[in-house]
Design brief:
The complex is a heterodimer of chains A (177) and B (380). In chain A, 67% of the residues lie in helices and 0% in strands. With 177 residues, chain A is mainly α. Chain A is globular. By secondary structure, chain B is α+β, with helices and mostly antiparallel strands. Chain B is 33% helix and 19% strand. Chain B contains 7 helices and 12 strands. The N and C termini of chain B lie far apart (128 Å). The chains are: A mainly alpha (177), B alpha+beta (380). The interface between A and B is large, with 46 and 48 residues.
Amino acid sequence: MSELSNQILIDNPRRSKISRYRPYWLVVVPLLAILFQVNIPLFFRHLSYLELPLLVTVYFSLMRREPVTCTLIGAAIGLVQDSMSNHYIGIFGIVKTLVGYFAASVSLRFDVQNTTVRLVLSFFFFFFHQFFSWVLSRGLLGQNVNFDLLQTLLFGAFNALVAVPLFLILDRLRDRT
Amino acid sequence: MLSRYRNLAVLVLVVAAQLILVAYQVRTSQDVTLLRVWTVTAVSPLAKGLEVLRSSTLGLAERYFLLVGVNQENLALRAELDRFKLENQFLKTELSTADRARSLSVFQEHSRSRTVAARVIGTGTGANSKVVFIDRGKSDGVMRGMAVITPDGIVGKITFVFPNAAQVLLVTDPTFAAGVISQKNRVPGTLKGLGRSQVQVDWVQNEVKVEEGEWFFTSGDDRVFPKGLPAGQVKVVKAGLAFKEIYLDPSGLMRGLEEVLVVLEGIHLAIPEGVLPPEGPIFVMPAVPTDVTKTSLQNPTAPDGNPVLATDADRLREKIRRIGELQGVHFGTAGPRLPNFNMDPAQVTRPTQPVYIPSEKPPEVKPATPVEPVKPSVQP
Protein backbone atom coordinates (compact mmCIF):
# COMPACT_ATOMS: atom_id res chain seq x y z
CA MET A 1 0.00 0.00 0.00
CA SER A 2 1.09 3.58 -0.64
CA GLU A 3 1.86 6.02 2.14
CA LEU A 4 -1.49 7.75 1.70
CA SER A 5 -3.33 4.47 1.85
CA ASN A 6 -1.49 3.61 5.04
CA GLN A 7 -2.66 6.85 6.56
CA ILE A 8 -6.33 6.63 5.74
CA LEU A 9 -7.12 2.92 5.50
CA ILE A 10 -7.31 0.63 8.49
CA ASP A 11 -4.75 -2.13 8.65
CA ASN A 12 -4.36 -2.20 12.38
CA PRO A 13 -7.04 -3.60 14.71
CA ARG A 14 -6.01 -1.12 17.40
CA ARG A 15 -6.92 1.78 15.17
CA SER A 16 -10.35 0.36 14.49
CA LYS A 17 -11.29 0.50 18.15
CA ILE A 18 -14.88 1.54 18.90
CA SER A 19 -15.20 4.80 20.82
CA ARG A 20 -17.49 4.72 23.82
CA TYR A 21 -19.50 7.61 25.21
CA ARG A 22 -21.56 8.02 28.30
CA PRO A 23 -25.23 7.55 27.29
CA TYR A 24 -26.28 11.06 28.27
CA TRP A 25 -23.86 12.55 25.76
CA LEU A 26 -25.78 10.73 23.02
CA VAL A 27 -28.86 12.71 24.10
CA VAL A 28 -27.36 16.03 25.15
CA VAL A 29 -25.10 16.62 22.14
CA PRO A 30 -27.78 16.07 19.46
CA LEU A 31 -30.23 18.15 21.51
CA LEU A 32 -27.72 20.99 21.72
CA ALA A 33 -27.11 20.70 17.98
CA ILE A 34 -30.82 21.00 17.28
CA LEU A 35 -31.13 23.91 19.73
CA PHE A 36 -28.27 25.61 17.95
CA GLN A 37 -30.01 25.16 14.63
CA VAL A 38 -33.28 26.47 16.05
CA ASN A 39 -31.98 29.48 17.94
CA ILE A 40 -28.73 30.80 16.54
CA PRO A 41 -29.89 31.60 12.96
CA LEU A 42 -32.24 34.17 14.49
CA PHE A 43 -29.23 36.39 15.09
CA PHE A 44 -26.69 35.02 12.61
CA ARG A 45 -28.73 34.25 9.56
CA HIS A 46 -25.90 32.62 7.61
CA LEU A 47 -25.46 29.99 10.27
CA SER A 48 -28.76 28.45 9.16
CA TYR A 49 -26.71 26.70 6.49
CA LEU A 50 -24.77 24.86 9.19
CA GLU A 51 -26.27 21.35 9.51
CA LEU A 52 -25.07 20.69 13.02
CA PRO A 53 -27.45 17.74 13.66
CA LEU A 54 -26.07 16.06 10.56
CA LEU A 55 -22.47 16.63 11.65
CA VAL A 56 -23.27 15.15 15.06
CA THR A 57 -24.87 12.12 13.38
CA VAL A 58 -21.80 11.66 11.19
CA TYR A 59 -19.48 12.04 14.16
CA PHE A 60 -21.19 9.47 16.38
CA SER A 61 -21.54 7.07 13.46
CA LEU A 62 -17.89 7.33 12.50
CA MET A 63 -16.68 6.92 16.04
CA ARG A 64 -19.00 4.19 17.29
CA ARG A 65 -18.67 2.00 14.19
CA GLU A 66 -21.81 0.02 14.97
CA PRO A 67 -24.23 0.21 12.03
CA VAL A 68 -27.29 -0.80 14.05
CA THR A 69 -26.74 1.72 16.83
CA CYS A 70 -25.83 4.44 14.36
CA THR A 71 -28.89 3.71 12.27
CA LEU A 72 -31.05 4.26 15.30
CA ILE A 73 -29.14 7.39 16.37
CA GLY A 74 -29.57 8.83 12.88
CA ALA A 75 -33.27 8.00 12.81
CA ALA A 76 -33.85 9.59 16.22
CA ILE A 77 -32.02 12.81 15.36
CA GLY A 78 -33.78 12.98 12.00
CA LEU A 79 -37.22 12.49 13.49
CA VAL A 80 -36.65 15.19 16.10
CA GLN A 81 -35.48 17.49 13.33
CA ASP A 82 -38.58 16.62 11.31
CA SER A 83 -40.76 17.55 14.26
CA MET A 84 -39.26 21.01 14.26
CA SER A 85 -39.72 21.53 10.53
CA ASN A 86 -42.77 22.22 8.40
CA HIS A 87 -42.66 19.10 6.23
CA TYR A 88 -43.79 15.54 6.74
CA ILE A 89 -42.24 13.65 9.63
CA GLY A 90 -39.87 11.05 8.29
CA ILE A 91 -38.01 12.85 5.52
CA PHE A 92 -35.00 13.87 7.60
CA GLY A 93 -35.48 10.66 9.54
CA ILE A 94 -34.96 8.46 6.48
CA VAL A 95 -32.01 10.48 5.23
CA LYS A 96 -30.23 10.55 8.57
CA THR A 97 -30.92 6.85 9.07
CA LEU A 98 -29.05 6.19 5.83
CA VAL A 99 -26.29 8.62 6.79
CA GLY A 100 -25.86 6.88 10.14
CA TYR A 101 -25.73 3.45 8.58
CA PHE A 102 -23.33 4.32 5.79
CA ALA A 103 -21.07 6.43 8.00
CA ALA A 104 -20.76 3.55 10.45
CA SER A 105 -20.05 1.12 7.61
CA VAL A 106 -17.45 3.41 6.05
CA SER A 107 -15.73 3.93 9.40
CA LEU A 108 -14.84 0.22 9.44
CA ARG A 109 -12.58 0.85 6.42
CA PHE A 110 -11.07 4.23 7.19
CA ASP A 111 -9.00 5.76 9.92
CA VAL A 112 -11.58 8.18 11.21
CA GLN A 113 -9.07 9.93 13.47
CA ASN A 114 -7.42 11.37 10.40
CA THR A 115 -8.35 15.02 9.83
CA THR A 116 -8.43 14.71 6.04
CA VAL A 117 -10.71 11.68 6.24
CA ARG A 118 -13.04 13.55 8.55
CA LEU A 119 -13.06 16.57 6.24
CA VAL A 120 -13.81 14.51 3.12
CA LEU A 121 -16.43 12.32 4.78
CA SER A 122 -18.22 15.32 6.29
CA PHE A 123 -18.36 16.95 2.89
CA PHE A 124 -19.53 13.74 1.24
CA PHE A 125 -22.26 13.03 3.78
CA PHE A 126 -23.52 16.63 3.64
CA PHE A 127 -23.86 16.35 -0.11
CA PHE A 128 -25.49 12.91 0.25
CA HIS A 129 -27.90 14.31 2.85
CA GLN A 130 -28.95 17.29 0.73
CA PHE A 131 -29.22 15.27 -2.46
CA PHE A 132 -31.24 12.48 -0.89
CA SER A 133 -33.56 14.99 0.83
CA TRP A 134 -34.17 16.55 -2.56
CA VAL A 135 -34.81 13.13 -4.14
CA LEU A 136 -37.34 12.26 -1.43
CA SER A 137 -39.10 15.63 -1.64
CA ARG A 138 -39.33 15.46 -5.39
CA GLY A 139 -39.80 11.75 -5.95
CA LEU A 140 -41.78 10.69 -2.92
CA LEU A 141 -43.79 13.83 -2.19
CA GLY A 142 -43.88 15.31 -5.69
CA GLN A 143 -42.77 18.72 -4.47
CA ASN A 144 -41.31 21.12 -6.99
CA VAL A 145 -38.01 21.74 -5.22
CA ASN A 146 -34.88 22.84 -7.03
CA PHE A 147 -31.46 21.37 -6.34
CA ASP A 148 -28.79 24.05 -6.53
CA LEU A 149 -25.59 22.11 -7.11
CA LEU A 150 -23.15 24.97 -6.67
CA GLN A 151 -24.83 26.14 -3.48
CA THR A 152 -24.84 22.60 -2.09
CA LEU A 153 -21.14 22.20 -2.83
CA LEU A 154 -20.34 25.50 -1.15
CA PHE A 155 -22.40 24.69 1.92
CA GLY A 156 -20.82 21.23 1.96
CA ALA A 157 -17.38 22.79 2.10
CA PHE A 158 -18.50 25.16 4.86
CA ASN A 159 -19.93 22.29 6.90
CA ALA A 160 -16.84 20.16 6.38
CA LEU A 161 -14.62 22.99 7.58
CA VAL A 162 -16.73 23.36 10.71
CA ALA A 163 -16.80 19.58 11.22
CA VAL A 164 -13.05 19.26 11.77
CA PRO A 165 -12.76 21.43 14.92
CA LEU A 166 -16.19 20.26 16.09
CA PHE A 167 -15.09 16.61 15.96
CA LEU A 168 -11.95 17.49 17.91
CA ILE A 169 -14.13 19.03 20.63
CA LEU A 170 -16.45 16.03 20.64
CA ASP A 171 -13.43 13.71 20.91
CA ARG A 172 -13.00 15.01 24.45
CA LEU A 173 -16.33 13.45 25.44
CA ARG A 174 -15.07 9.93 24.79
CA ASP A 175 -14.83 7.53 27.67
CA ARG A 176 -11.21 7.22 28.76
CA THR A 177 -11.75 3.94 30.59
CA MET B 1 -27.56 -16.32 8.45
CA LEU B 2 -29.83 -13.81 10.20
CA SER B 3 -26.97 -12.30 12.19
CA ARG B 4 -24.99 -11.90 9.00
CA TYR B 5 -27.64 -9.59 7.57
CA ARG B 6 -28.60 -8.08 10.89
CA ASN B 7 -27.30 -4.59 10.07
CA LEU B 8 -28.99 -4.47 6.72
CA ALA B 9 -32.22 -5.87 8.15
CA VAL B 10 -32.34 -3.18 10.83
CA LEU B 11 -31.68 -0.50 8.22
CA VAL B 12 -34.45 -1.75 5.95
CA LEU B 13 -36.83 -2.04 8.87
CA VAL B 14 -36.19 1.50 10.15
CA VAL B 15 -36.39 3.05 6.68
CA ALA B 16 -39.54 1.10 5.84
CA ALA B 17 -41.19 2.21 9.09
CA GLN B 18 -40.48 5.84 8.29
CA LEU B 19 -41.68 5.43 4.72
CA ILE B 20 -44.96 4.07 6.03
CA LEU B 21 -45.14 7.05 8.40
CA VAL B 22 -44.68 9.49 5.51
CA ALA B 23 -47.17 7.58 3.36
CA TYR B 24 -49.72 7.68 6.15
CA GLN B 25 -49.36 11.45 6.48
CA VAL B 26 -49.62 11.99 2.73
CA ARG B 27 -52.56 9.64 2.34
CA THR B 28 -54.63 10.92 5.24
CA SER B 29 -53.37 14.52 5.14
CA GLN B 30 -52.96 14.18 8.87
CA ASP B 31 -49.95 15.02 10.90
CA VAL B 32 -48.23 13.01 13.59
CA THR B 33 -49.13 15.62 16.14
CA LEU B 34 -48.01 13.69 19.17
CA LEU B 35 -44.39 13.53 18.06
CA ARG B 36 -44.32 17.21 17.19
CA VAL B 37 -45.93 18.19 20.48
CA TRP B 38 -43.41 16.15 22.47
CA THR B 39 -40.45 17.53 20.62
CA VAL B 40 -41.51 21.17 20.59
CA THR B 41 -42.66 21.01 24.21
CA ALA B 42 -39.24 19.67 25.11
CA VAL B 43 -37.26 22.10 22.99
CA SER B 44 -39.26 25.33 23.28
CA PRO B 45 -38.51 25.94 27.00
CA LEU B 46 -34.82 25.54 26.23
CA ALA B 47 -35.15 27.91 23.27
CA LYS B 48 -37.01 30.39 25.46
CA GLY B 49 -34.29 30.07 28.07
CA LEU B 50 -31.62 30.73 25.46
CA GLU B 51 -33.54 33.74 24.23
CA VAL B 52 -33.90 35.13 27.75
CA LEU B 53 -30.21 34.47 28.39
CA ARG B 54 -29.25 36.23 25.18
CA SER B 55 -31.49 39.22 25.78
CA SER B 56 -30.40 39.54 29.40
CA THR B 57 -26.68 39.31 28.68
CA LEU B 58 -26.41 41.18 25.41
CA GLY B 59 -29.24 43.48 26.41
CA LEU B 60 -27.46 44.24 29.69
CA ALA B 61 -24.36 45.32 27.83
CA GLU B 62 -26.39 47.49 25.52
CA ARG B 63 -28.41 49.05 28.31
CA TYR B 64 -25.73 49.76 30.86
CA PHE B 65 -22.50 50.12 28.98
CA LEU B 66 -23.43 51.55 25.63
CA LEU B 67 -26.58 53.62 25.83
CA VAL B 68 -27.80 54.08 29.37
CA GLY B 69 -31.53 54.67 29.30
CA VAL B 70 -31.71 55.37 25.59
CA ASN B 71 -32.20 51.75 24.63
CA GLN B 72 -35.18 51.41 26.96
CA GLU B 73 -36.72 54.57 25.60
CA ASN B 74 -36.06 53.46 22.06
CA LEU B 75 -37.83 50.15 22.65
CA ALA B 76 -40.83 51.91 24.14
CA LEU B 77 -40.98 54.42 21.30
CA ARG B 78 -40.68 51.69 18.72
CA ALA B 79 -43.54 49.76 20.30
CA GLU B 80 -45.61 52.93 20.36
CA LEU B 81 -44.74 53.68 16.76
CA ASP B 82 -45.82 50.18 15.71
CA ARG B 83 -49.14 50.66 17.47
CA PHE B 84 -49.67 54.02 15.78
CA LYS B 85 -48.76 52.55 12.41
CA LEU B 86 -51.52 49.99 12.72
CA GLU B 87 -53.95 52.64 13.90
CA ASN B 88 -52.88 54.95 11.12
CA GLN B 89 -53.36 52.20 8.55
CA PHE B 90 -56.90 51.68 9.74
CA LEU B 91 -57.75 55.38 9.76
CA LYS B 92 -56.15 55.96 6.37
CA THR B 93 -58.15 53.25 4.68
CA GLU B 94 -61.39 54.41 6.23
CA LEU B 95 -60.77 58.03 5.35
CA SER B 96 -59.99 57.15 1.77
CA THR B 97 -63.32 55.42 1.20
CA ALA B 98 -65.74 57.59 3.12
CA ASP B 99 -66.05 60.99 4.67
CA ARG B 100 -64.48 61.78 7.96
CA ALA B 101 -67.67 61.54 10.00
CA ARG B 102 -68.50 58.12 8.63
CA SER B 103 -65.02 56.77 9.16
CA LEU B 104 -64.98 58.04 12.71
CA SER B 105 -68.31 56.39 13.45
CA VAL B 106 -67.10 53.15 11.85
CA PHE B 107 -63.94 53.39 13.88
CA GLN B 108 -66.00 53.77 17.02
CA GLU B 109 -68.34 50.92 16.10
CA HIS B 110 -65.73 48.40 14.98
CA SER B 111 -62.57 47.73 16.89
CA ARG B 112 -59.49 46.68 14.95
CA SER B 113 -58.42 43.08 14.51
CA ARG B 114 -57.84 41.37 17.83
CA THR B 115 -54.21 40.35 18.01
CA VAL B 116 -51.78 38.87 20.47
CA ALA B 117 -48.12 39.84 20.52
CA ALA B 118 -45.56 37.04 20.30
CA ARG B 119 -41.81 36.76 20.40
CA VAL B 120 -39.88 34.68 17.89
CA ILE B 121 -37.92 32.08 19.84
CA GLY B 122 -36.48 29.90 17.10
CA THR B 123 -36.28 28.92 13.48
CA GLY B 124 -37.17 25.61 11.88
CA THR B 125 -34.61 22.92 11.34
CA GLY B 126 -33.00 22.21 8.00
CA ALA B 127 -30.67 24.39 5.97
CA ASN B 128 -32.21 27.73 4.98
CA SER B 129 -35.45 27.01 6.79
CA LYS B 130 -38.44 29.32 6.24
CA VAL B 131 -40.37 28.59 9.41
CA VAL B 132 -40.06 30.16 12.84
CA PHE B 133 -41.38 29.33 16.28
CA ILE B 134 -43.18 31.86 18.48
CA ASP B 135 -43.74 31.75 22.22
CA ARG B 136 -47.55 31.77 22.00
CA GLY B 137 -49.56 28.59 21.69
CA LYS B 138 -52.88 26.96 22.31
CA SER B 139 -53.07 28.39 25.84
CA ASP B 140 -53.04 31.91 24.36
CA GLY B 141 -55.86 31.20 21.93
CA VAL B 142 -53.61 30.67 18.93
CA MET B 143 -55.02 28.27 16.33
CA ARG B 144 -53.72 26.67 13.18
CA GLY B 145 -54.30 28.83 10.10
CA MET B 146 -54.19 32.17 11.91
CA ALA B 147 -52.42 35.05 10.25
CA VAL B 148 -49.16 36.43 11.62
CA ILE B 149 -48.38 40.07 10.87
CA THR B 150 -46.24 43.01 11.84
CA PRO B 151 -47.26 46.66 11.49
CA ASP B 152 -45.31 46.68 8.22
CA GLY B 153 -47.17 43.79 6.59
CA ILE B 154 -47.91 40.10 6.57
CA VAL B 155 -45.34 37.65 7.96
CA GLY B 156 -46.86 34.19 7.54
CA LYS B 157 -49.44 31.85 8.95
CA ILE B 158 -49.61 29.37 11.82
CA THR B 159 -49.01 25.82 10.64
CA PHE B 160 -48.71 23.95 13.92
CA VAL B 161 -49.89 24.84 17.40
CA PHE B 162 -48.40 23.46 20.58
CA PRO B 163 -49.38 24.13 24.19
CA ASN B 164 -46.97 27.03 24.66
CA ALA B 165 -45.54 27.60 21.20
CA ALA B 166 -46.57 27.69 17.57
CA GLN B 167 -44.89 27.22 14.24
CA VAL B 168 -45.20 29.98 11.65
CA LEU B 169 -44.74 29.35 7.93
CA LEU B 170 -43.11 32.48 6.53
CA VAL B 171 -44.26 34.17 3.32
CA THR B 172 -40.91 33.30 1.76
CA ASP B 173 -41.45 29.53 2.08
CA PRO B 174 -42.09 27.84 -1.30
CA THR B 175 -45.26 26.21 0.05
CA PHE B 176 -46.77 29.51 1.21
CA ALA B 177 -49.62 31.12 -0.74
CA ALA B 178 -51.99 34.02 -0.07
CA GLY B 179 -54.53 36.00 -2.06
CA VAL B 180 -53.40 39.54 -2.87
CA ILE B 181 -54.63 42.48 -4.90
CA SER B 182 -52.70 45.42 -6.33
CA GLN B 183 -53.38 48.84 -4.92
CA LYS B 184 -53.47 50.96 -8.06
CA ASN B 185 -55.06 48.76 -10.71
CA ARG B 186 -56.85 46.31 -8.42
CA VAL B 187 -55.23 43.30 -10.06
CA PRO B 188 -55.80 40.07 -8.10
CA GLY B 189 -53.10 37.42 -7.83
CA THR B 190 -51.61 34.73 -5.64
CA LEU B 191 -48.62 35.53 -3.49
CA LYS B 192 -46.12 32.67 -3.38
CA GLY B 193 -42.85 32.16 -1.57
CA LEU B 194 -39.73 31.31 -3.54
CA GLY B 195 -37.42 30.11 -0.80
CA ARG B 196 -35.42 33.34 -0.94
CA SER B 197 -35.90 36.91 0.24
CA GLN B 198 -38.31 37.96 -2.53
CA VAL B 199 -41.79 36.58 -3.16
CA GLN B 200 -43.75 36.22 -6.39
CA VAL B 201 -47.29 37.16 -7.39
CA ASP B 202 -48.56 34.47 -9.72
CA TRP B 203 -51.59 34.01 -11.98
CA VAL B 204 -51.63 37.59 -13.28
CA GLN B 205 -52.37 37.77 -17.01
CA ASN B 206 -49.83 39.43 -19.27
CA GLU B 207 -52.47 41.84 -20.54
CA VAL B 208 -53.14 43.30 -17.11
CA LYS B 209 -51.28 46.40 -16.01
CA VAL B 210 -49.02 46.18 -12.98
CA GLU B 211 -46.36 48.79 -12.36
CA GLU B 212 -43.07 48.73 -10.53
CA GLY B 213 -43.34 50.39 -7.15
CA GLU B 214 -47.01 49.47 -6.87
CA TRP B 215 -48.14 47.94 -3.59
CA PHE B 216 -49.95 44.64 -3.17
CA PHE B 217 -52.37 44.14 -0.30
CA THR B 218 -54.08 41.04 1.01
CA SER B 219 -57.41 40.44 -0.70
CA GLY B 220 -58.98 38.35 2.06
CA ASP B 221 -59.92 35.64 -0.43
CA ASP B 222 -57.72 33.04 1.25
CA ARG B 223 -59.69 33.32 4.51
CA VAL B 224 -56.42 33.55 6.42
CA PHE B 225 -55.34 37.18 6.15
CA PRO B 226 -57.83 40.01 6.66
CA LYS B 227 -58.23 42.17 3.58
CA GLY B 228 -56.16 45.34 3.34
CA LEU B 229 -52.88 44.35 4.99
CA PRO B 230 -49.73 45.33 3.07
CA ALA B 231 -48.02 42.35 1.42
CA GLY B 232 -45.16 44.03 -0.40
CA GLN B 233 -43.99 46.46 -3.03
CA VAL B 234 -43.38 45.44 -6.62
CA LYS B 235 -39.69 45.40 -7.47
CA VAL B 236 -39.71 43.61 -10.82
CA VAL B 237 -42.47 43.15 -13.41
CA LYS B 238 -41.94 41.33 -16.69
CA ALA B 239 -44.10 39.45 -19.14
CA GLY B 240 -43.95 35.67 -18.92
CA LEU B 241 -45.29 32.93 -21.20
CA ALA B 242 -48.91 33.26 -20.12
CA PHE B 243 -48.68 35.11 -16.85
CA LYS B 244 -46.66 38.04 -15.65
CA GLU B 245 -43.61 37.51 -13.49
CA ILE B 246 -44.05 39.89 -10.57
CA TYR B 247 -41.55 39.92 -7.73
CA LEU B 248 -42.13 41.74 -4.45
CA ASP B 249 -40.13 42.58 -1.39
CA PRO B 250 -42.31 41.26 1.46
CA SER B 251 -42.87 44.29 3.66
CA GLY B 252 -43.51 42.29 6.83
CA LEU B 253 -40.00 40.84 6.88
CA MET B 254 -38.07 43.95 5.95
CA ARG B 255 -37.16 44.92 9.52
CA GLY B 256 -36.24 41.44 10.67
CA LEU B 257 -38.31 39.21 12.90
CA GLU B 258 -38.25 39.60 16.63
CA GLU B 259 -41.81 40.31 17.65
CA VAL B 260 -44.95 39.62 15.66
CA LEU B 261 -48.71 39.81 16.07
CA VAL B 262 -50.99 36.81 15.73
CA VAL B 263 -54.42 37.82 14.41
CA LEU B 264 -56.94 36.11 16.66
CA GLU B 265 -59.94 37.84 15.08
CA GLY B 266 -59.38 39.60 11.80
CA ILE B 267 -61.28 42.57 10.45
CA HIS B 268 -61.25 43.19 6.72
CA LEU B 269 -60.12 46.66 5.70
CA ALA B 270 -60.47 48.50 2.41
CA ILE B 271 -57.45 48.71 0.14
CA PRO B 272 -56.09 52.22 0.66
CA GLU B 273 -56.28 54.58 -2.32
CA GLY B 274 -53.29 56.40 -3.69
CA VAL B 275 -49.64 55.98 -2.98
CA LEU B 276 -48.50 55.12 0.50
CA PRO B 277 -46.61 58.02 2.07
CA PRO B 278 -42.85 57.73 1.66
CA GLU B 279 -40.56 57.54 4.64
CA GLY B 280 -39.37 60.88 6.02
CA PRO B 281 -40.97 64.29 6.46
CA ILE B 282 -43.63 65.46 4.02
CA PHE B 283 -45.10 68.92 3.41
CA VAL B 284 -48.64 69.41 4.67
CA MET B 285 -50.62 72.55 3.72
CA PRO B 286 -52.28 74.61 6.46
CA ALA B 287 -55.95 73.94 7.14
CA VAL B 288 -58.66 75.95 5.40
CA PRO B 289 -59.76 78.95 7.58
CA THR B 290 -63.01 78.36 9.39
CA ASP B 291 -64.82 81.50 8.12
CA VAL B 292 -64.18 80.66 4.44
CA THR B 293 -65.55 77.17 4.87
CA LYS B 294 -68.62 78.58 6.58
CA THR B 295 -69.25 81.15 3.87
CA SER B 296 -68.97 78.88 0.90
CA LEU B 297 -70.63 75.77 2.23
CA GLN B 298 -73.07 76.67 4.96
CA ASN B 299 -74.15 80.18 3.90
CA PRO B 300 -74.09 80.43 0.11
CA THR B 301 -74.68 84.21 0.06
CA ALA B 302 -71.95 86.74 0.57
CA PRO B 303 -72.40 89.82 2.74
CA ASP B 304 -73.45 91.86 -0.36
CA GLY B 305 -76.38 89.54 -1.00
CA ASN B 306 -75.05 87.83 -4.12
CA PRO B 307 -74.58 84.07 -3.98
CA VAL B 308 -71.00 82.88 -3.60
CA LEU B 309 -70.33 80.49 -6.45
CA ALA B 310 -67.08 78.96 -5.32
CA THR B 311 -67.20 75.72 -7.25
CA ASP B 312 -68.63 74.27 -10.47
CA ALA B 313 -71.16 72.41 -8.37
CA ASP B 314 -72.32 75.70 -6.82
CA ARG B 315 -72.72 77.29 -10.24
CA LEU B 316 -74.64 74.33 -11.62
CA ARG B 317 -76.95 74.26 -8.63
CA GLU B 318 -77.62 78.00 -8.97
CA LYS B 319 -78.33 77.62 -12.71
CA ILE B 320 -80.83 74.80 -12.14
CA ARG B 321 -82.52 76.75 -9.36
CA ARG B 322 -83.01 79.74 -11.64
CA ILE B 323 -84.30 77.55 -14.49
CA GLY B 324 -86.88 76.17 -12.10
CA GLU B 325 -87.87 79.64 -10.87
CA LEU B 326 -88.28 81.04 -14.40
CA GLN B 327 -90.47 78.11 -15.51
CA GLY B 328 -92.44 77.87 -12.28
CA VAL B 329 -91.25 74.42 -11.33
CA HIS B 330 -90.56 73.66 -7.71
CA PHE B 331 -87.94 71.00 -7.28
CA GLY B 332 -88.59 68.35 -4.71
CA THR B 333 -92.41 68.39 -5.19
CA ALA B 334 -94.46 65.97 -7.23
CA GLY B 335 -95.73 67.22 -10.57
CA PRO B 336 -96.08 66.14 -14.18
CA ARG B 337 -94.16 69.08 -15.62
CA LEU B 338 -90.44 68.95 -16.21
CA PRO B 339 -88.47 72.13 -16.79
CA ASN B 340 -86.52 72.76 -19.97
CA PHE B 341 -82.96 72.37 -18.79
CA ASN B 342 -81.60 73.58 -22.16
CA MET B 343 -82.82 77.05 -21.43
CA ASP B 344 -80.16 79.58 -20.47
CA PRO B 345 -81.43 81.61 -17.51
CA ALA B 346 -78.91 84.37 -18.22
CA GLN B 347 -80.43 84.89 -21.72
CA VAL B 348 -83.94 85.16 -20.30
CA THR B 349 -83.28 87.84 -17.74
CA ARG B 350 -81.45 90.27 -20.01
CA PRO B 351 -82.76 91.56 -23.45
CA THR B 352 -81.82 89.14 -26.20
CA GLN B 353 -81.60 91.90 -28.92
CA PRO B 354 -81.04 95.70 -28.78
CA VAL B 355 -84.36 97.58 -29.02
CA TYR B 356 -84.58 100.01 -31.99
CA ILE B 357 -86.74 103.16 -31.65
CA PRO B 358 -87.40 104.85 -35.11
CA SER B 359 -88.10 108.36 -33.75
CA GLU B 360 -84.65 108.64 -32.37
CA LYS B 361 -81.67 109.62 -34.41
CA PRO B 362 -79.69 106.69 -35.58
CA PRO B 363 -76.24 106.51 -34.10
CA GLU B 364 -73.43 108.13 -36.04
CA VAL B 365 -70.93 105.94 -37.68
CA LYS B 366 -67.44 107.36 -37.90
CA PRO B 367 -65.55 106.60 -41.08
CA ALA B 368 -62.51 104.50 -40.62
CA THR B 369 -59.19 106.35 -40.67
CA PRO B 370 -57.14 105.43 -43.75
CA VAL B 371 -53.88 103.72 -42.92
CA GLU B 372 -50.79 104.34 -45.00
CA PRO B 373 -48.98 101.24 -46.16
CA VAL B 374 -45.77 100.63 -44.28
CA LYS B 375 -42.70 100.73 -46.42
CA PRO B 376 -40.14 98.10 -45.70
CA SER B 377 -36.87 99.58 -44.45
CA VAL B 378 -33.86 98.64 -46.43
CA GLN B 379 -30.54 98.34 -44.71
CA PRO B 380 -27.57 99.65 -46.72
